[in-house]
Design brief:
- The complex is a heterodimer of chains A (443) and B (261).
- Chain A has helices spanning 2-23, 54-67, 80-92, 106-114, 122-128, 130-133, 136-141, 164-170, 178-189, 205-229, 238-249, 262-270, 284-290, 330-342, 346-356, 374-384, 398-412, 418-434, and strands spanning 26-29, 32-41, 71-77, 99-102, 143-144, 147-148, 151-152, 155-156, 158-163, 194-197, 274-280, 298-301, 313-318, 321-324, 387-390.
- Chain A is an alpha/beta fold and 443 residues long.
- In chain A, strands 1, 2, 3, 4, 7 and 14 form a six-stranded mixed beta sheet that branches.
- In chain A, a hairpin with a 2-residue loop joins strand 1 and strand 2.
- Chain B is mainly α.
- Helices cover 72% and strands 2% of the residues of chain B.
- Chain B contains 13 helices and two strands, in the order H-E-E-H-H-H-H-H-H-H-H-H-H-H-H.
- Chain B starts with a helix and ends with a helix.
- The chains are: A alpha/beta (443), B mainly alpha (261).
- Chain A binds chain B through residues 85, 88-89, 91-93, 111-112, 114-115, 117, 201-203, 254-261, 264, 268, 398-399, 401-402, 406-407, 409-413, 415-416, 435, 437, and chain B through 15-19, 95, 98-102, 120-125, 128, 208-215, 217, 225, 228-232.
Chain lengths: 443, 261
């Protein structure tokens, strides 16, 4: 009896061990070798800062699944802010998913790469022609010391949205120059409308969109690049910071912008209370979803150059990127590369553009060949023909972002002046440099 | 064990979550020169002091008044209601109330002709902390009312009767009988409030995330920023250890003062 019980126990134990071994990674499926890939992404169906490309992703994903029935994805969907925080913890705790679509890039990717947490995709990228297929500026953002650690998904541009109904009612036209833009804002100030809606309660919109936007069109790509790769200091961008403060002093923004959330600021535009919003392409679809009928119709124009001697310049950045955990198995890495390559094939690009309001980072897209809303076509076309100056908050290390956001609120609230804010940026910048945390795509 | 683990972490410099090196007490030395840490600590201490004075006083006065009126159960339930609201939910609601454009507070002030008092409650560095504290008081005073009401039931009625016969006024009854009789309860609430104020987090994180600038930064939000955003795990741990030491010290001083009394 005792012997029989021992045999039963041994068999049960054996089954348990076999089950445990087969639970993760790979397992035999009915149609051959099946693979399980854990994936985190942020393709929610909208919301503040969301990509609003969820349904488009689902459609492309379904096409992939139809072709690859033996690949099973265990998917977790997180909001844009949550994924940023949770990826950091997951990677550190060795609990990272195999494949993830996250942000930011630059110094943060560099940090993960230095810790050996990300898979080096350089060889795959060469094999699949990614270096010719994708925007080099975007590829740079996920490259550290010549090695590629991610595939940039989309290009984003800060642009200026306006309500065509208000412009029509007041007889206003899109400005072609910065001087015309200021005259337009002065005119709007005399009306019942808020000239420009902005919410800095979440700490990022003033520094990221207004200051960074003004920096790009004041100093241009070369000077901004020199901050990252040369000797330029943050304090040298003081004119752009002062110009942003001048906008506050002029009353172009609503009162109490440090107490207004990004979402509430957008509501001011879509509810017809504000005429203009300095925002970015990531919010296009959400603005349209939130628009009150007969109250808001979207128009858009680019930031005019403040420095007219510069070529037309656009602030830009990779919105988010796909990366693969270095801890994933070789087979999972291989299939993940195939999957993300599939996401940006011509058929998928069409879905992203036409149904997802998302501008893939592929080069040479002929926007006229797609069925796009006129304002979306205009956004992409006007941005494609400009020099790109890189964002701050997607490229710099977290200690610099902390000053950019938090001390940025003090700067907006005029507790510190532009020079002091930028001086503090320089202090953190040098700390990051000393710790080897700065982004450097060059080999 | 978590305390020891935190102390252990505090002895390291973390380049990231996974790369560290031993630096002894280096993190603690850095804290003394950290402008944001000092400001955060000051905010915690100020919050503690204000909590000990304001919600406790409101709670005591209301408890005394409520025990003397009819319908005290309904009234005490009403006061206690905010305590049952999760702090995160309370924070979101008050954030709407304080919204400079859509907010109920400014809307009401303007509607009754007090538009000049409509302020940027959470955007102005001079008032954001106090605006937050009002919310904190709203979430907490009901708890004090309830505790004081229970304590008042144990005060000997004969003391009041005797004092009244001797001609004592209501104020004299309050200061010479009620308050001394509630000393134990008051001490408990002081300790409880101080500890609560020092480890406060939710409301500030939801409403301002320590902003504008660092105007409402407290040690809890700063530790969160350091540990989970900047990956400075060791430095954040040293801040947590200092906070723990201060809480223990304040508790010890309060208990000792009570024993001496």
């Amino acid at each position: 009896m005792k012997k029989a019980r021992s045999i039963v126990l041994l068999v049960l134990l054996g089954c348990l061990v076999l089950f445990r071994l087969s639970a993760g990674g790979e397992q035999e499926g009915a149609g051959g070798k099946a693979v399980t890939i854990s994936m985190w992404h942020q393709f929610t169906t909208g919301g503040a800062g969301g990509t609003a490309a969820g349904p488009a992703f689902d459609k492309i994903f379904a096409k992939w699944q139809a072709k690859n029935p033996n690949v099973k994805f265990e998917t977790t969907i997180l909001g844009p802010m949550e994924i940023r925080d949770q990826m950091r913890l997951a990677l550190a705790a060795n609990k990272a998913p195999d494949l993830f679509y996250t942000w930011p890039e630059g110094g943060v990717v560099a940090g993960y790469a230095a810790d050996g947490l990300l898979y080096d995709m350089t060889a795959d990228a060469k094999r699949l022609g990614w270096f010719k297929k994708f925007n080099p500026t975007a590829l740079d953002t996920v490259t550290q010391k010549g090695k590629l650690y991610g595939l940039p998904s989309e290009l984003e541009y800060p642009v200026i949205y306006y309500n065509t109904l208000i412009f029509g009612k007041l007889g206003l036209k899109e400005p072609a120059t910065y001087k015309e833009f200021l005259a337009l804002l002065d005119k709007l100030k005399t009306t019942e409308y808020i000239p420009v809606t902005v919410g800095n309660g979440d700490k990022w919109q003033l520094p990221t969109v207004i200051f960074d936007g003004m920096r790009a069109v004041t100093y241009g790509k070369a000077k901004v690049d020199d901050l990252y790769f040369g000797s330029t200091k943050w304090v040298e961008f003081e004119d752009a910071a002062n110009e942003a403060i001048r906008w506050i002093d002029q009353g172009y923004f609503p009162d109490g912008i440090n107490g207004i959330s990004y979402t509430d600021a957008n509501k001011l535009l879509t509810s017809g209370k504000a005429a203009i919003s300095c925002d970015g392409t990531w919010i296009t679809q959400d603005l349209l979803l939130g628009a009150e009928k007969g109250v808001f119709e979207m128009g858009v124009f680019p930031w005019p150059n403040i420095n007219e001697k510069l070529p037309p310049t656009a602030l830009t950045g990779a919105g988010s990127h796909w990366s693969i955990s270095s801890k994933a198995s070789d087979q999972v890495k291989k299939i993940s590369i195939q999957f993300i390559d599939f996401l940006y094939q011509p058929d998928a690009v069409k879905i992203w553009l036409e149904e997802g309001a998302l501008n893939p980072a592929n080069v040479g897209i002929d926007y006229n060949a797609y069925n796009l809303a006129p304002y979306i076509k205009k956004i992409y076309q006007m941005s494609a023909n400009r020099e790109y100056a890189q964002y701050t908050h997607t490229l710099v290390p977290e200690n610099v972002v902390n000053v950019f956001y938090n001390d940025g609120q003090s700067w907006v609230g005029k507790d510190i002046d532009s020079k002091e804010w930028l001086r503090r940026m320089d202090v953190e910048w040098e700390k990051a440099r000393a710790e080897g945390k700065l982004w450097n795509p060059r080999p | 064990v978590p305390g020891l683990q935190t102390f252990f972490y505090s002895l390291f410099y973390y380049r990231s979550f996974v790369t560290r090196r031993f630096i002894g007490l280096g993190n603690y030395l850095s804290l003394f020169t950290d402008r944001v840490f000092r400001l955060s600590l000051w905010h915690n201490l100020l919050w503690s002091a204000l909590t000990v004075v304001i919600p406790l006083s409101i709670g005591l006065v209301l408890a005394v008044l409520v025990t003397k009126v009819r319908g005290r159960v309904a009234l005490s339930a009403m006061y206690f209601l905010p305590v049952t609201v999760p702090l995160v939910v309370g924070g979101v609601v008050w954030k709407w109330i304080y919204n400079p454009i859509f907010g109920l507070l400014n809307y009401t002030l303007k509607a009754i002709g007090l538009g000049k008092l409509a302020l940027n409650w959470l955007a102005d560095t001079d008032i954001a902390f106090y605006a937050l504290f009002v919310t904190g008081t709203w979430t907490y005073f009901g708890f004090c009312v309830l505790i004081f009401m229970n304590a008042l039931q144990s005060v000997d009625e004969n003391l009041y009767e005797a004092a009244k016969i001797d001609g004592a006024t209501e104020l004299q009854l309050f200061f010479h009988i009620t308050i001394p009789s509630l000393r134990t309860t008051i001490n408990f609430l002081i300790i409880w409030s101080t500890i609560g104020a020092m480890k406060f987090f939710d409301l500030v994180y939801v409403m301002t995330r320590g902003g504008p600038g660092h105007a409402t930064e407290i040690v809890g939000t700063y530790i969160f920023e350091l540990a989970f955003r900047q990956q400075k795990v060791g430095y954040a741990s040293s801040a947590a250890m200092v906070l723990l030491a201060i809480i223990l010290l304040l508790t010890y001083l309060t208990v000792r003062t009570r024993e001496q009394q």
